[in-house]
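Collaborator request, handled under Task 6.
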Amino acid sequence: MAIRKKKVYKFSDEVMAKDAIISLIFGGLGLISIIFVFVMGIVLKGAVPFGISAFLLVAAIMGVTGLLFALFALADSDGGILGKRMAVIVSLIDIVILAVLYIV
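Structure tokens returned to the collaborator:
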């Protein structure tokens, strides 16, 4: 007869880890910066001034920082796992888009 393990439930007061929230904010702002540069490139027909293209550097910094905060959130035991996974995904999307733009 197989021995069944007792299910262990873990309850947390926080709905979402603070690091995951910070990571989602950084990732979202990075995506908004990338979209802003795309739209300005279309509107200005490719003649984008340096000040606007500097938003891509800001997006890269926010993407990497967001990924670090997301990894710290994954290591933390507080909060739900869905928010932590979304924080990782949004930050990775930022970094992948910027890497594709750099290659092309």
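The cover message to the collaborator said: "The CA atoms of residues 21 and 80 lie 11 Å apart. The mean pLDDT is 87. Please let us know whether this matches your experimental observations."
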